[in-house]
């Protein structure tokens, strides 16, 4: 039987109408575990890519969609277990606690899921972006080969209305650079100005224009959430 290959040059190519939406358990048991054991995969749909050799927007595939990669973990220090997740223009930083992946059949833990966020620049003063990676790894077992394979799901997290909250924040594009700052007009102001005559960089004043300013991201206590140009 001919092996089904749906990934070419690191790019996932599915027939029209097909979607690849595996569960966490399926990713760990049906793909990652089979990869580590050198068993046949359900389909050659996940390419092997070193995700830390490129920035997330430069990785193969359609950046508008979720992308899946088999990758190996590079140890940061020779005598340690800490992974090196630095890329060309930034680094991946873990956030929150690892999540246990439990088998629906045996009710046993089969893997772990780590969530990471991409930062531009160098730690500890990196600039947080909306690129997110879920890194899946197997639970270490004696009967499994000592491989450093992990399975990565990378995607761009879209924010509602592209603003964190009512206070506002600098909008980012997919490369993590700050975008244009939106301007809101107060149509209830007593003095209404001709909007067609207002300069693009107008600030708050009698014309009733309020410009959104930069702020610190309360979600991260160590690093800034927005880039200053």
From TrEMBL:
Q: Native species of this protein?
A: Handroanthus impetiginosus
Keyword list (alphabetical) reads: DNA-binding, Nucleus, Transcription, Transcription regulation
What is any Pfam family matched here? NAM
Give all residue intervals belonging to the NAC domain: 14-157
Q: Where is this region: Disordered?
A: 198-229
**GO biological process: one example:** regulation of DNA-templated transcription
> Organism classification, top ranks?
Eukaryota, Viridiplantae, Streptophyta, Embryophyta, Tracheophyta
Please name the GO terms that the record assigns under molecular function. DNA binding
Q: What is this protein called?
A: NAC domain-containing protein
């Amino acid at each position: 039987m001919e092996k089904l290959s749906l990934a070419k040059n690191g790019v996932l190519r599915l027939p029209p109408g097909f979607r690849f939406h595996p569960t966490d358990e399926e990713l760990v048991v049906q793909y990652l575990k089979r990869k580590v054991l050198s068993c046949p995969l359900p389909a050659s749909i996940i390419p092997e890519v070193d995700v830390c050799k490129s920035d997330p927007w430069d990785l193969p595939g359609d950046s508008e969609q979720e992308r899946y990669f088999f990758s190996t973990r590079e140890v940061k220090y020779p005598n340690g277990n800490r992974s090196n997740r630095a890329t060309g223009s930034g680094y991946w930083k873990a956030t929150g606690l690892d999540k246990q992946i439990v088998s629906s059949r045996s009710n046993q833990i089969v893997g772990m899921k780590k969530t990471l966020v991409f930062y531009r620049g160098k730690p500890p003063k990196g600039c947080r972006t909306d690129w997110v990676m879920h890194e899946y790894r197997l639970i270490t077992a004696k009967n499994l080969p000592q491989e450093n394979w992990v399975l990565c799901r990378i995607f761009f997290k879209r924010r509602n209305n592209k603003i964190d909250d009512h206070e506002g924040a600098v909008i980012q594009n997919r490369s993590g650079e700050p975008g244009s700052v939106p301007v809101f007009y107060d149509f209830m102001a007593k003095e209404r100005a001709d909007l067609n005559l207002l300069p693009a960089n107008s600030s708050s004043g009698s014309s009733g224009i309020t410009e959104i300013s930069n702020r610190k991201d309360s979600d991260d206590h160590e690093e800034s959430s927005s880039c200053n140009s």
